[in-house]
Amino acid sequence: MKSLKNFFDKARPTFEPGGKLSALGSVFDGFETFLFTPRTTSGPSSVHVHDAIDSKRTMIIVVLALMPCFFFGMYNTGYQHWLALGADSFPFWQLMLYGFLAVIPRVVVSYFVGLGIEFAFAQWRKEEIQEGFLVTGILIPMICPIETPLWMLAVATAFAVVFAKEVFGGTGYNIVNVALVARAFLFFAYPAQMSGDKVFVASGTALGYGTAVPDGFTCATPLGQIATSTATDSLVTVTGIDGHAITTWDAFLGLIPGSFGETSVLCILIGALILLLSGMASWRIMLGVFLGGLGMGLIANLTATPTYPASFMPAWDQLLYGGFAFAAVFMATDPVTAARTNTGKWIYGILIGVIAVLIRVYNNGYPEGAMLAVLLMNVMSSLIDWCVVQANIRRRMRRLIVKTNANE
Amino acid sequence: MKIQIKKGLDLPIAGAVTAADVRSVPAATAAVVPDDFAGFQPKVDVAVGDSVLAGDALMHDKRFPAVKLVSPLCGKVVEVERGERRRLLKVVVEAAGDDFKKFDLTRTTPQDRIDLLAESGLLALMRQRPYDIVPAADVRPRDIFVTAVYSAPLELDTARRIVAEDKALLELATGFLAEITTGSVYISHRASWTLGPVQGAKMVMVEGPHPAGNAGVQAANIAPVNKGETVWTLDIETLRRLGHLLRHGKIDNRATVAVCGPAVENPYIAKTIIGAPVEALMAGVKTVDTKHHRIVSGNVLVGTVVAADGYLRYPYRMLTVLDEGDDVDEFMGWASMSPAKMSVSRTFPGHFLKRLFRPDARLLGGRRAMIMSGEYDAMMPMDVMPEYLLKAIIARDIENMERLGIYEVAPEDFALAEYADTSKIPLQHIVREGLDYLRKELE
Question: Which of B334, B343, B418 sits opposite A56 (nearest CB)?
Answer without folding.
Answer: B334
